[in-house]
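COURSE: Structural Biology Practicum
ASSIGNMENT: Worksheet 4, Part C
STUDENT ID: 0417
INSTRUCTIONS: Below are two proteins. For each, the amino acid sequence is given first, followed by its structure token string. Answer the questions at the end about the second protein only.

PROTEIN I
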Amino acid sequence: MMRCEASPRLAPWFADYASYHRARGNQVTHLAGIPVLMVAILGLLSRVVLVDPGVAVGVDLAGALFAPVLLWYLWLDWRLAVPFAFAAALSHAAGSRLPLAVLWSLFAAGWVVQYLGHLLFERRRPAFHRNLAHLLIGPLWVFAKLFRWKVL
């Protein structure tokens, strides 16, 4: 797979996020925890239907909230945002089919794994404690790492 570099708009976000994720153990916990959280969060938000699919094209809260986030991702780096959108759609599809109890368990497990990574390996608070936008950068950063984009 081709190794790509983040755009000039995205690179500072990745650099700041990466500064909170230097320890290999913490990176591994995020590579596991963030995809689990994506499935859980998108699955939970999919339960809030905004437009009934029987009337028109269905719209749920996950889609409504992800649309502006995707626009931001596209602005930051469209080359990464486009394939990430497909991964998010798969996470949404998977999460929307899971029972609520499973989604809540995944949600809790995902956060526990994240915090354990910071506690045991990084010994530093998560990046989003300083900047909430990192809650949105994290999934993109993990996706980029998994697909060998240069994330610093």
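PROTEIN II
(use this one for the questions)
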Amino acid sequence: MEGGAVQGGEGARVPGRRTANPAGRPIGRRTLSVMLLPLLLSQVGCKVNYSFTGADIPAGASTYDVAVFDARAPLSTPRTAQVFTETLRDLLQAQTPLKLVREGGDLRYEGAITGYDVQPVSIQANETAALNRLTMTVSVTYTNTLDATRTSTFTVSRFADYDSAADLVTVEESLVRTISDQLVQDIFDRTLGNW
């Protein structure tokens, strides 16, 4: 090759050839149509906001607020309610494009911990429990200020087991975090999941 002429090596365009994909095969009209179809569909028709996490965000919604949940169950503590509330706020912030506001959000969450019980499970032959089960029940009011038909009140409940030889005080924080993670995912699914 004299004079710096470049011949058809890798990355060079040869006149009359169709564009190739990374595998080196030409992109045909059908493949190109399939690639452009989602773009065209997004420009036409009704608007539904889906995020990559599967959230169905109501059109026009940009904010949410989560009031601190009350600890109404006899054994629950204000700390338990705070952990649950923060877990719900964190999940909504991580899985939606919505902005958290102190109050007056487009979407609102409030409620109370209405059940907080410890019961023995897995009874052994000597009639002692190998495990104890902590169950949390939460009553939730979800308010959609943009579409009242999607407003709802419901109850969710989850549990976690722990060794009966362990003192609840020593394992409670970890159990509450585990249960709260499950509860807030249930709440998210019921309000914004819409699968």
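ANSWER KEY EXCERPT:
Q1: Residues 1-9, 43-52 have pLDDT under 50 and may be disordered.
Q2: Strands lie at 49-50, 56-57, 63-66, 70-71, 99-100, 107-123, 129-144, 152-163.
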